[in-house]
Amino acid sequence: MTAKKPNTVLRTGTYMLRTVIRILLYGVAVLVIIRGASRAYDFGYAVFSEEAMAAEGTGHEVYVTVDNGDTVKDVAKTLKKQKLIKDELVFEIQEKMSRYKDSLQPGTYILSTEQNVEEMLAILSGTNTEGQPGSDKTQEK
Length: 141
Prior knowledge:
Blueprint: H1 4-48, E1 61-66, H2 72-81, H3 88-97, E2 107-112, H4 117-124, H5 136-140
Antiparallel strand pairs: 1-2
């Protein structure tokens, strides 16, 4: 009878250790899922929100040049470098989902940190030329 007690203690200890390890693994899995969901939400919010980098009245204008053959990725890098956007990938996705998809035109543009991505895309695609270099309104001034 005494030989069975150590075996029972060993089995109970092993069972408890396995249970603790499972609980820890489940806890880690839950944390990973929560973190992933949070990041996915933040990314989705950034794609679908219309936030500018600066509040109205506090921004500044920047000259941006789009060269012939520049891709959306190249333009995104330029805009990020000029602090007009926060995230290059978000800009690329916003461009693909917008009505200005594949319509960026080469040229030099005046963009503002107060503009959202939709407004910048309208300018970069040549749809909105108001106040841009070479447009009629800037030549009159």
